[in-house]
Amino acid sequence: MSTISKHELQKRFKVNNTALINEYFERGESVLACSGHYGNWEWGTLAVGLALKGDTYPIYKPLSNKTFDNWFYRIRSRFGNKMIPMRQTLRVMTGSKEKPSIFLFGNDQAPQKSESHYWTSFLNQQTSIQQGLEKIAIKTNRPVFYLKVKVLKRGYYEVDFVPICLNPAQSTIHEITQKHTLLLEKLIQEEPAYWLWSHRRWKHQPSQ
């Protein structure tokens, strides 16, 4: 990832139906998207940024080790992506609202225990789901898409933009969260080997 060329990345990671997103950008509008730790999500973030006409803002959780955090920041932004620490999402979104953009959220990380307010069944486990994407979508009414990754063969991938909610202000409570959770669950059930099973998704349990 630190050395791959744009040409090689575009050959190995195909981004489909970009017109869905670029149409919003051409009208001066912005969108939100989410995906999980599935397939090669790091390449996917770089490839999406290259394929779209607007600014791409991947949201990430900074590492405690500053050396590694700086290194990851450099390679994740080397093709122009604008990396945003989780806690700065709303501030950056407000400051960039005049330019068409896509903000990329991870939808499978466990929230902190103090922020585990919504629980649902995910892979037959009671699981807390982060609410940040849904709250921001409703507040801004930006359309929400899911980045559905498919592994074609070793080292080759493709991703499709799947509409989740095009008018979040009219959605019901937890509707967006439930939709993207079900999409990820179905993807994992179909091809379980490509999800990052080691990332302690169930480190918190619901209070009795």
Structure description:
With 208 residues, the chain is an alpha/beta fold. The protein has one domain: Fructose Permease, CATH 3.40.35. Helix content is 33%, strand content 24%. It contains 7 helices and 9 strands; from the N terminus they run H-E-H-E-H-E-H-E-H-E-E-E-H-E-E-H. Strands 1-9-8-2-5-3-4 form a 7-stranded mixed sheet, with helices on both faces. Strand 3, helix 4 and strand 4 form a beta-alpha-beta unit. The model has no long low-confidence stretch (mean pLDDT 95).
Number of helices: 7
Q: What's the arrangement of strands in the largest beta sheet?
A: 1-9-8-2-5-3-4
Tally of individual domains: 1
Overall, the morphology is globular
Note the beta-strand portion: 15-25%
* Biggest beta-sheet profile: 7 strands, mixed
The CATH architecture would be 3-Layer(aba) Sandwich
Quantity of strands, as a count:
9
Distance between the termini: 44 Å
CATH fold field value: Fructose Permease
CATH class: Alpha Beta
Range of helix content: 25-40%
Unreliably modeled segments: none
Instruction: Please identify the structural class as seen in this structure.
Output: alpha/beta
Q: What series of H and E elements makes up the topology?
A: HEHEHEHEHEEEHEEH
Please state the CA-atom Rg, rounded to the nearest Å. 17 Å
Rounded average pLDDT? 95
